[in-house]
Amino acid sequence: MGFNKVFSLLLVFVVLGATAGIVWAAPVEKVRVIITVNKDFNENSLFALGGNAVARGKIFPIVVAELPPRAVERLKNARGVVRVEYDAKVFAYPKPPSPPGRDKDKEPSQPAQEIPWGIERINATGAWSVSDGFSGGVIEVAIIDTGIDRDHPDLKDNIAWGVSVLNGRISTKPNSYQDRNGHGTHVAGTIAAINNEIRVVGVAVLPTRKVCVGC
User: Which residues of 160-188 are buried (b: 16+ CB within 10 A; e: fewer)?
Assistant: First the structure.
């Protein structure tokens, strides 16, 4: 066997022997958190813990970040960090079924208007002599909930706009934020159900503006 062949064979053995001992590191699993921060926060504290910023709040002082699970507790003690929460999914309970014998296709009769306990509790009725929600302009109230019933007679004149971010998909189509649960409509009614002699009346009894966000 010639010298060149022997040398090539030895070289192959050396290369194979060197790579055989290499252990490829598995990617580090990370969790996503929402960090409430103040002016003293520096994103370098994230990098030092093996994390990175995913998004930054434009209105609220928050940073969305991903970092190793073991680093979450240490992040809570970093300078400028007010609070750390896991960015977890939330689920709404399904809408309860219609009562037995109820015709789903028949337009339900509207009950007489009443003032809910909560409206009385905060003495909103006493405030109506000072202000009934009409400002001469537009008042927008943002609600993050399950959506809104766009055809509800107490609310349809009070909807300014809506957006759905369900499952990370952003949509401003009206059908996307239609309430299929009922809770968002209930909350909207507490805020802005108009004074029209049916169902309930809200804190702002004259048409104001209501924004449905996060449906």
Answer: eebebeeeeeeeeeeebbbbebbebbbbb
